[in-house]
Specification:
single chain; alpha+beta; Beta-Lactamase; two-stranded antiparallel sheet; protein transport; coiled coil; transmembrane
């Protein structure tokens, strides 16, 4: 899953969030929100093998944490899509909302969009958003250590157990199919061998007994 976590915040007040994995990244993100430069509207921060991407619009921060393999286009397409989905109904509530006040209203939408972008099922539907993203190729990229003070850095932990469990289920399913296929192949081989042996016995009997009707053997 390239996109792991997403949130919408006003300053350091997280209004709603969703994570597809377990880990301490919500804690790291809240620390990061206090340090994000307010003069940067679009930025990416590298943190070990993960990257925090965010955009700022109308005083709100739209942020996603992604695996570094996700690149930059996908995370920012996701953030632009979230922003366009969020503002029409929640613009006013976001101005005064307390922590997680929009979790019930927009949290499920955030989950659906995160899942959709991760599965690429709706990525084509949002391709037009790319034309609205100015200068993705010039997104500023920096190390997280540049904005964290000494002693603030926390080892980022991401529990991929859910993903590993799904992979294990898939592996077991494939192993079961392979086992069944091998079993049926063995059955066919055994049936073929039995058929060949039976045919040889019939041929030997016909030769020994003088013909197709086994006259010699019946006469005796």
């Amino acid at each position: 899953m390239p996109l792991i976590y997403a949130l919408i915040a006003r300053g350091n007040v997280v209004l709603c969030e969703h994570a597809d994995s377990e880990g301490n990244f919500p804690t790291v993100t809240r620390l990061l929100l206090c340090r994000l430069p307010t003069d940067k509207q679009r930025m990416s921060y590298i943190y070990d093998r993960y990257v925090f991407h965010y955009i700022v619009c109308e005083g709100l921060t739209f942020l996603t944490m992604a695996d570094d393999s996700a690149g930059f286009a996908l995370p920012f397409e996701f953030l632009e899509a979230v922003k366009q989905q969020f503002f029409p109904e929640h613009r006013e509530a976001a101005k005064t909302g307390i922590a997680l006040s929009l979790q019930g209203n927009f949290g499920p939408t955030l989950k659906t969009m995160l899942d959709s972008f991760n599965s690429h099922q709706t990525l084509d539907d949002f391709r037009q958003i790319r034309t609205q993203i100015d200068g993705i190729h010039s997104v500023m990229i920096d190390s997280i250590d540049k904005i964290l003070q000494r002693g603030e850095r926390i080892d980022l932990l991401v529990d991929q157990s859910e993903q590993l469990n799904q992979e294990a289920v898939t592996f077991r399913r494939q192993a079961r199919r392979l086992k069944n296929a091998l079993w049926w192949r063995n059955v066919r081989i055994i049936a073929m061998i039995v058929g060949i042996i039976s045919m040889l016995c019939v041929i030997i009997g016909m030769v020994s007994c003088g013909g197709v009707t086994f006259p010699s053997c019946r006469g005796s």
